[in-house]
Design goal:
The complex is a heterotetramer, with 2 copies of chain A and 2 copies of chain B.
Chain A: H1 8-17, H2 48-60, E1 66-67, H3 80-86, H4 89-92, H5 104-121, E2 125-126, H6 133-147, E3 154-158, H7 163-173, E4 179-183, H8 194-200, E5 207-212, H9 222-231, E6 235-240, E7 261-265, E8 281-285, E9 298-302, E10 308-312, H10 319-322, H11 335-372, E11 378-379, E12 388-392, H12 397-406, E13 409-410, E14 413-414, E15 425-429, H13 436-451
Parallel strand pairs in A: 1-13, 3-4, 3-5, 5-6, 6-7
Antiparallel strand pairs in A: 2-8, 7-8, 9-10, 11-12, 12-15, 14-15
Helix pairs in contact in A: 3-11, 5-11, 6-7, 11-13
Chain B: H1 3-6, H2 43-54, H3 77-83, H4 86-89, H5 101-118, E1 122-124, H6 130-147, E2 155-159, H7 165-172, E3 176-180, H8 190-196, E4 201-207, H9 219-228, E5 232-237, H10 249-252, E6 256-259, E7 279-281, E8 294-297, E9 300-303, H11 323-361, E10 365-366, E11 377-380, H12 382-388, H13 392-401, E12 408-409, E13 418-421, H14 429-448, H15 450-454, H16 467-472, H17 481-484
Parallel strand pairs in B: 2-3, 2-4, 4-5, 5-6
Antiparallel strand pairs in B: 1-7, 6-7, 8-9, 10-11, 11-13, 12-13
The chains are: A alpha/beta, B alpha/beta.
The structure holds pyridoxal-5'-phosphate (2 copies).
One pyridoxal-5'-phosphate (PLP) binds at residues 69-70, 129-131, 163, 165, 207, 211, 236, 238, 260, 275, 277 of chain B.
Chain lengths: 455, 485, 455, 485
């Protein structure tokens, strides 16, 4: 019996201690008609050896490609120490640190990570994670709705926000009647279109969501946007790649007063791509908004002997205390990812994180230079980018990508399904993991592919 | 000591740094003025810091962790190895479908297995924890009613014993949570249910066995009442471990379920997450399931397109939920196999009842003495508290000194001074006996030397923490000494 | 500076504390002419990201084959838990447990493993590991030489002992003038030839080495051999695959009195193949020979409070105490392999280990049946085997293996370089890792290969 | 509790068992009569047992480990990940050479790098630890003399400060270890050396810096004397960390060297091993190096054949030594790179001297006060012992209570009540300062409350262990209670 220690003697003795003879007797309260042990669609057990072999075969089907995909999930070097430590049983198999005295390890890590994220975003406080970047943005919007004094439930969101994030906002906000006003982007720069924004801002709204960088890799100019929204009495939410914040003005320093909430995806900090998750949603805000924050928060306090220690705090915001009136329904969050992320950031250090950001930026610019040297390949937008950019191709991106794959390259994301208005658009990303040879290889392959006619 | 306190300006871990690169082209107006507060430590210091921090945790791998409602069973190490295979761990979420057959095969099998054990028509794996599964389920119920033009339904009925996420999820879905009481025997108060039901009823959320650890005997009647009122039944699968492979929520009449794969299906809790809250639906609700989902066909596997599921409530996450968790759950289902499912429920239930009986013999009071336990049970220490002023919390803290993590305390809210105890099937009889011995010792100590119990713990890295202070004077991020002042 | 924490300020302050200004001053005692910082053959540093990429590329060159090689190193399933626990920093980065009180983890593991090995071999005591199976056998022989009352330094060794083990014996024993008499094997059974043995035994000898199974996978009949050697006043050393001992009579129960020493390679117990090492030499013996045992030994004792605890013991045998007269020069042994091996054995349990042995045996018999059904393929020897056997092929094994490799199969070991007298001989092994489909695949490929003429 | 005490007859970990198979064909006479004493526990019990056992260790990843002569530096986790890549870890040692280019490239590069840092003509990587490297080196010297028909040489000269493996290895090679004294300044007594040298001298073994932590200043004279007598010079590389990238043993006149890759090249000690003791030789001794060795040529890499090295001393291990250790060492050399080598020696030396000075200021006596430390240094607690009866061992045990592993004690044998302290370059100044503070506290305590120090440790899983009892009444394997009596 996999993972069940009981010997037949154990079972017999345990039953005897209750004056029973059969485990079935323990299920006597269940209406007999409900018992149904048929499991036709569940295969018979494998042992670990068989399972691992099957898994290795299946995992191998992912192939081994040189990958220039980004679009919300980024390939970065993760120090070997990160996951060797994060998967230590004491971190891996612990529950949420409700018994603080027996969970000081996890709690201190949470506190450290909160400190790192607050500092990166330039805001006062961070929570101890939300699910992923997209759902964290939805929580930020709901938080803004709760904080906002007016009765508008309308939020301005750029059409240059990641399409999946927009989809998640729609799913999570619709039941609470929060409306999303999508603001077009400027076709030349790829930034929020100021005219569209002005138009949308003429009706009351709760908050403006600024993606930095946006889905196109483009950097917005958040100072003016922030001041504009604040003047309209709205809150400002920065949806930021936290790695970019190693180089960029943090949301807390946008405009005169700074953004009110920052949130997004901390996957670039030590979390493997893993086909999409588990990732690491973060949310930071100003001190005064603390009581409306969703999710767990770790805090420092003193113990009975006056020594410092850590505990989950401000739980009155949460579902297990406030129930229907909680700031969110979230309970289980992404704890282990926080642990990995804290270790990752500590291993890279301030300088290392900055270098990763700068080198991803530099690699992307270099890639753009190489690729736009190919006839027919141009940049779609002229605004500065962080580590991603949109290219205009002379042929359908889908076909090009397919042929690049034949050459061992995943060349980026075809934008057509999300933005048909952009034509043959391709989103490319080159992080610090790419060498000059990799970039050259991509350029050579693309040149080759484009020479042949589309099929 | 905090990692920041170990930090020294200019200390570098060169092996982890890609080297200087130029970002000078970025417009000055966009650039950061000062460096963020990230540690500057050597690799050894970081490794030593986090390794020794880990030792300051209790965990399943190191201690018995009888935390009720959380199903702290053994997390097979194979599942961890498997999820870390490069073909899975290094796979980009947007990598082309042509390279995804291996991954999709795993996810599709998991969908099939979960559909079978829950008796549902279809499963979507994307919700990232139980609470998101709840959101998805209620949102599907809402979409169903609206799709039928039934706009009047606003209430979701929730028993008072329900987990906090239930009413909270109801709120997230724009519905109103309507609480109904539990009878003295632990079952739902049917009269109250009847009274609560009507055309405004969107549905009922139920955990079965309930969070009180008892199986809701009137489940068929309940289903009848709710369905008759036009409402739908939502199954909170947090307690599926008690009936896995023996009873299917679909057979009880549930229309929607969520599962906590990090409970029943043994993925690690990771000190708070990540989890996975797969959601299942009966045939009539299946079209509303969130996306992405995996379709399995003769030619292979593929993602279902949005066009094929126009009535889906939509996306819940940027990509495909917590794939790494799903792979671990898949591993576990394959390791258990068909017969293993039922055995989980049987031995989890055996362990719970054995422990309940032994603790009763040791002098503790069951909250529902006449009832069989499911995979967990509730004790009430009301009498102890009255006799000795030792509270459930004190007993919890003292258990830590005995080398056991503490049971869930003060939940469910309706039982005074309660402990919710869940041993899980992966613990041996010897471990349960040792726990009983510790509880017996604490009981004796509570009578002989109550202050000792009330001052616990004594052997943890810290003494009892001041939670009130933590909330009154929130210290949520470290600041360098100068800044702090 | 990789792995060096010092900032320039640290260095300056540390030097200042010694009234120095330059690190070079600390090297002042070294004759100037000896300083030589030229390192032309050492490449420039890689960072971890670059190194891991290079390593992945190189590792991938090993390819992915279905492997039927054995010959002293065996592919077995290793539970994932084994190395996840063994590489925990507390085991991985600790030294030899000289400070016993701060090393109880490692010491208890050693004691547990010694218990397991002693029981598997049916002897009283085990040491805490030697380097590998071959060097452990050399140590066993030297131990026998020390124990033996006579002044012979001659040891009888089967020509059916692994050729590399014979080579290692030659290297390690030659300087101490220990002579090896190689006893031929019976060409029909593959076992020690009794006539050759009788002849060799007419001159005095110290010990007889019995390999169980031997290099050909063949099982010797150790009872008679043991009694014969004992009657001649010699010691008996069993060189055994400890996995086989889950099924076979242990050396301690051979003949009337049992073998005196058992040793060999415990790699099959949780140690990855890893191209040949690190593996795990073991050595067990009877209680009365304890003081001549080489290597470290962990023992149980009491602490100042009367509680049990573990410590290295009987160190008076060892080099750091006895120096030139030590039982061996060994110091660093294979500690972490012991840890892994103990965890492995605990995870499999008594029944699991027995099943692995039985299923390897059954798979090998099945493979033999399938392969010998191919025309021209026959078994070389008729004695029973454990999980390896020699096949006689109709063509040169080298060519056959090469063509099997083209079909993704490593078909076994060509014996010609070691035993040209055996002709076209191939040593094959099928452990519990092989499925029926794998065996069928091998058989089909071999049939196909043999149909084509040798190239 | 022992794993055997957790065992229950019939308890199984099904997920790790391949299932029953038939071995009934094996002749009864060959079959085992009773099952071996292996534990029968659940997977959770095994995981919990060994995880909690690990917590009962000190280690580099968790504590400062200033163990002299052992170079307990940080072991990069990358090296571990790299050695576990399936292409390396699952590779069979006898897999064909055609599939070995990746592995051989690593090993060949390691040979090249080690040849360069030692100034040797060639390197063989196969010795499985320092002691086996010593055996190989001496055996090569022996083979060299014999090949020249020089049969008279029987002595290897070894300073009294030498590590125990040196004389022991001499014995293993059938030679006689001839001890010579060390002068008061820590250098070899040249007069004694001269007296010891003669036609019977096969060679000299030397560690430099010596195990006393000081650089042998007369090394060139020593080399001259030994070589003039027809002897060879053997370099025990255990202390190479002190001069890595700055001084090459070959330049000092050494003919043979061994390196402890588990010291200088940062492979983990694993609680006792495995290590790797690569051996290097000057041109005249290179033909005698053991096998296997890797040859690198234009077309790729290959194993040197025995036919190409007819004078090799032969094989030392069944396959290729501790490849997994060699890969970790290779990883480390590539991470350090050319400049990183020298920096190791510089900062290891800086740390040692800084610590020595600070401890002297704290009131401890250096054994060789006038000398610079190499990467380690010797204190003598003779005065403390006389004044307080607190011994070096007592101080060691008390250090454990302060959270530090203890230095090497009572080695080298010639310094009374000595501590050999090696901080390594991977420790930060703050860690060294904390160690000094602890030593200072212990010194004060030794004077104020000596019994407290002599009773240490108090905070370890066990109190001080009775080593005498362990040796007098050896209990080396557990027996079930019945059998035990
Ligand atoms: C009964 C019950 N329902 C729902 C949940 C919420 O699940 P999650 O924490 O995965 O969001 C829990 C988790 O503790 C639970 O115990
Ligand atoms: C100076 C010296 N020489 C030789 C050795 C022996 O090395 P090993 O333990 O690797 O056999 C050591 C190890 O402690 C040592 O310190």
């Amino acid at each position: 019996m996999p993972y069940i220690p009981h010997t037949p003697e154990d079972v017999a003795a345990m039953l005897a201690s209750m004056d029973l003879t059969d485990i079935g007797q323990l299920f006597a309260e269940i209406p007999a008609g409900l018992c149904n042990e048929a499991l036709a669609r569940v295969p018979a057990a494998l042992n670990e050896m068989q399972l691992m072999r099957l898994a290795r075969e299946r995992a191998a089907q992912s192939g081994d490609y040189l990958c220039f995909l980004g679009a919300g999930a980024y390939e970065h070097h993760i120090p070997a120490a990160v996951w060797q430590i994060a998967t230590r049983g004491e971190f891996y198999s612990a529950y949420t640190p409700y018994q603080a005295e027996a969970s000081q390890g996890t709690l201190q890590v949470l506190y450290e990570w909160q400190t790192m994220m607050a500092s990166l975003t330039g805001l006062d406080v961070s929570n101890a994670s939300l699910y992923d970047g997209a759902s964290a943005l939805a929580e930020a919007v709901l938080m803004a709705v709760r904080l906002h004094r007016g009765d508008s439930r309308r939020v301005l969101v750029s059409a240059g926000l990641h399409p999946h994030y927009r989809a998640v906002l729609a799913t999570l906000l619709a039941p609470q009647q929060v409306g999303l006003a999508e603001i077009g982007f400027d076709p030349a720069s790829g930034r929020l279109d100021p005219h569209a924004l002005e138009r949308a801002g003429s009706a009351p709204f709760v908050a403006l969501v600024i993606a930095q960088p946006n889905f196109f890799g483009v950097l917005e100019e958040p100072d003016a946007l922030t001041d504009w929204a604040h003047e309209k009495g709205a809150l400002v939410i920065g949806a930021c790649n936290p790695l970019a914040l190693a180089l960029l003005r943090p949301p807390g320093a946008w405009g005169r007063d700074g953004a009110d909430i920052a949130c997004g995806e901390a996957q670039p900090f030590g979390i493997p791509l893993c086909a999409g998750g588990p990732y690491l949603g973060y949310l930071c805000c100003r001190q005064e908004y603390l009581r409306q924050m969703p999710g767990r928060i770790a805090g420092r306090t003193l113990d009975a002997a006056g020594q410092p220690g850590y505990t989950l705090t401000l739980q009155a915001r949460e579902q297990h205390i406030r129930r229907a009136r909680a700031t969110s329904n979230i309970c289980t969050n992404q704890g282990l990812m926080v642990t990995a992320s804290a270790i990752h950031l500590a291993l890279l250090g301030a300088q290392g994180v900055e270098q990763v950001a700068a080198s991803s930026h530099a690699n992307t610019l270099r890639l753009l230079a190489l690729l736009t040297a190919i006839p027919g390949v141009t940049r779609m937008f002229d605004a500065p980018v962080f580590h991603e950019a949109v290219l205009r191709l002379p042929q359908s991106a889908a076909g090009v990508l397919e042929r690049l794959r034949g050459r061992g390259i995943l060349g980026g994301l075809e934008l057509c399904p999300h933005h048909p208005e952009l034509g043959h658009a391709l989103l490319v990303c080159a992080t610090e993991t790419k060498t000059e040879a990799d970039l050259q290889r991509y350029a050579a392959a693309l040149a080759e592919v484009l020479e042949t006619a589309p099929c | 000591m905090l990692i920041f306190e170990r930090s020294r300006p200019g200390r570098r871990n060169a092996a982890q740094q890609p080297g200087a690169a130029d970002a000078g082209d970025l417009p000055a107006a966009l650039r950061r003025a000062s460096r963020p507060l990230l540690p500057e430590v050597s690799e050894l210091d970081a490794v030593r810091h986090y390794t020794t921090l880990s030792q300051r945790n209790f965990s399943v791998d190191t201690q018995f962790y009888p935390l009720g409602s959380c199903t702290m069973k053994y997390n097979p190490r194979a599942a961890n190895a498997l999820a870390q295979l490069p073909g899975f761990a290094d796979r980009h979420p947007l990598a082309p479908a042509a390279t995804a057959q291996g991954l999709l095969a795993c996810l599709w099998e998991l969908q099939e297995i979960l559909a079978d054990v829950t008796g549902m028509a279809a499963i979507c794996l994307t919700p990232m924890a139980g609470a998101q599964g709840e959101f998805a389920g209620i949102a599907m119920m809402r979409a169903y009613h609206l799709a039928r033009g039934d706009h009047a339904r606003r209430d979701i009925i929730v028993p008072d014993a329900a987990h906090g996420t239930n009413p909270a999820s109801v709120g997230m879905c724009g519905y109103v949570a309507r609480e109904i009481p539990t009878g003295a025997d632990g079952d739902v108060d049917l009269a109250a249910l009847r009274a609560a039901c009507g055309p405004q009823t969107a549905g009922l959320m139920l955990t079965n066995p309930s969070t009180l650890g008892v199986f809701e005997r009137n489940i068929e009647a309940i289903a009848g009442i709710v369905h008759a009122a036009g409402g739908l039944l939502y199954y909170d699968g947090a307690n599926l471990n008690a009936i896995l492979g023996k009873v299917k929520p679909g057979d009880m009449g549930f229309d929607v379920v969520h599962l906590n794969l990090h409970k029943t299906f043994s993925t690690p809790h990771g000190g708070g997450g990540p989890g996975a809250g797969a959601v299942g639906a009966s045939a009539r609700l299946a079209p509303f399931l969130p996306l992405p989902q995996v379709a399995g066909e003769a030619g292979g596997y593929r993602w279902l397109s949005e066009a094929e599921r126009p009535r889906s409530i939509g996306r819940l996450s940027a990509f495909m939920g917590n794939v790494g968790v799903l792979l671990r759950a898949w591993a576990y289902t394959r390791l258990l196999g068909r017969d293993g499912m039922r055995r989980v429920a049987e031995h989890a239930t055996l362990n719970a009842n054995y422990l309940l009986h032994a603790l009763q013999r040791a002098g503790f009071d069951a909250a529902y003495p006449g009832r069989h336990a499911g995979h967990e049970f509730v004790l009430t220490l009301k009498r102890l508290k009255e006799e000795t002023d030792v509270s459930a919390m004190d007993v919890c803290k003292r258990l830590l000194d005995k080398g056991f993590y503490a049971p869930t305390a003060y939940f469910p809210l309706l039982v005074p001074e309660c402990l919710l105890i869940e041993p899980t099937e992966t613990e041996s009889r010897e471990t349960l006996d040792a726990f009983v011995a510790a509880m017996r010792e604490i009981l004796a100590e509570a009578h002989d030397e109550p202050e000792r119990v009330k001052g616990a713990p004594y052997t943890m890295p810290v003494r009892r923490l001041d939670e009130v202070r933590a909330a009154r004077e929130p210290d949520l991020a470290w600041r360098p000494p100068a800044q702090k002042a």
